Amino acid sequence: MVYIKDLSKHVGEEVTLKGWLYNKRSSGKIKFLILRDGTGYLQCVAFKGNLPEEKFELADTFSQETSFEVTGKVKEEKRAVGGYELDVTDLDLISAAENYPITPKEHGVEFLIDHRHLWIRSQRQVAILKIRHRIVKAIRDFFDDRGFTLFDPPILTPNACEGTSTLFETEYFDLGKAYLTQSGQLYAEAGAMALGKVYTFGPTFRAEKSKTRRHLTEFWMVEPEAAFFDLNDDMDLAEEFLEYIVQTVLKDNQEDLKILERDTSTLEKVKRPFPRISYDEAVAILKENGVDFEWGNDFGGGDETIISSKFDRPVMVHRYPSEIKAFYMKRDPDNPKVALAVDVLAPEGYGEIIGGSQREDNLDLLLQRIKEHELPQEFFEWYLDLRRYGSVPHAGFGLGLERTVSWICGLEHLREAIPFPRMIYRNTP
Ligand code: 4AD
Ligand code: MG
Question: Where are the beta strands (DSSP E) in 55-210?
Fold first, then answer.
């Protein structure tokens, strides 16, 4: 059996392929069957007389998504989808598909998402999933090649990492409550003290009550963490990382981006250095644009869009008011009102894709923060140990995979960036 993506090696040969019917049309003595096999699309041309009569007629019974096996000779054909064509000599049904619910006509998004298990077969969704796959590999290659060790944190945790308002909780035997992790960061910090540079990469959970196009309740996050890094090192790493991901997809996924009709000119510009502005400067931009914004507030989606629209590549906003940031962030020694934090905002209105910071490495200050945030100190004793035994400056960040996929693919909503999205109003299929 041969796959469509490998057809260039089989020109002139007779081969057998297996897959599903994507589309068909016929005119008298000739039938065109578009086969998809997950690796590509192939026009199979059945000429009456080139295959047994009953097989020629069998083709008429095939409907959209019928699975079948087809044999024929591979021809180069510039005008055909994928650049090759199959001269059919034999055809067999594998399994029928009666009344496939998703037809080429327009369906509403709710209908499509109810049929997500089938919707992922469509050309556009396949292109997105392939880009997601390439991004995941680029992420791993990037860190693996730079001396970071993959470090897997637990998913069931005894405490919150990113605030208590978005925790999913579950009963945990006799030990009381356990929570689905919001971030692997605290564990990554322990990992960095053991291995120097680590990254976590896995699913994270937030009981987000907001119904926005940028929020999922289950999403994937990659979180590098490095000992002896300060905020500047962290920003250097973040911009090199984003440039690498975007340029890799541009190099390897041109066809997928074409299917998505993505304007790649904006992606081409994602090259270092990225602009770096302070929160104060970002606030000034908002004010210049007539936004009535008070220092100390967090940016909303609309604010982020205004700020990022001033730049042609991702912008790094640093030094946010510590009040609105997580307990573990180190305060700026030059101005304790702000935290050594950075958010990276993607262009074209895609908003925050990275959140990171230098961590508080002083035991007393960290204890104070835990008290201020009214966090249960006993669950953080292990984390405090990292400051008791050879504490060092360290920093890291988290990149949301779906937000990155969504931005690079030019999607309207995060729900298309993951195989089976989980949102406040949906946990099926
Ligand atoms: O900014 P966040 O909350 O940062 C952290 O979790 C830190 N512990 C990361 C670190 O320093 N190691 O989340 C990081 C990123 C966001 O920038 C965003 O891309 C993504 O995670 N994210 C979400 N993506 C989809 N749905 C949600 N509900 C998300 N919440 C955050
Ligand atoms: Mg954030």
Answer: 67-76, 84-95, 149-150, 156-157, 169-171, 177-180, 197-205
Look at strands 177-180 and 218-227 and give their pairing: unpaired
| Beta-ladder partners of 396 | 225, 357
Choose among 27, 89, 98, 109: nearest CA to 61: 98
Share of the chain above pLDDT 70, in %: 100
pLDDT over threshold 90, residue 161: no
Q: What structural domains does the chain harbor?
A: 4-95 (2.40.50.140), 116-416 (3.30.930.10)
Question: Which residues approach ligand 1 with their CB closer than 6 A?
Answer: 161-162, 183, 185, 206, 208, 215-216, 219, 221, 223, 352-357, 396-398, 400, 402-403
Closest CA relative to residue 239, chosen from 156, 346, 164: 346
User: Of 214, 298, 397, 403, which is best to mutate to test ligand 1, by the most ligand atoms within 8 angstroms of its C-beta?
Assistant: 403
Q: Residue 420: what pLDDT?
A: 98
52: cis peptide before it, omega within 30°?
no
Buried-state track 184-218, b at ≥16 Cβ within 10 A, e below 16: bbbbbbbbbbebebbbbbbebbbebeeeeebbbbb
Q: By alpha-carbon position, which residue is closest to atom 2 of ligand 1?
A: 355
Q: Which of 143, 200, 221, 222 to mutate to test the pocket of ligand 1 (most atoms within 8 A of CB)?
A: 221
The DSSP secondary structure of 148-173, one letter per residue, reads: PEE----SEESS-SS-GGG--EEE-G
In this structure, what token pair is assigned to residue 314?
């991702």
- The pLDDT tens digits of the residues spanning 414-423 come to 999 999 999 9
pTM, 2 dp:
0.97
pLDDT in tens, 84-93: 999 999 999 9
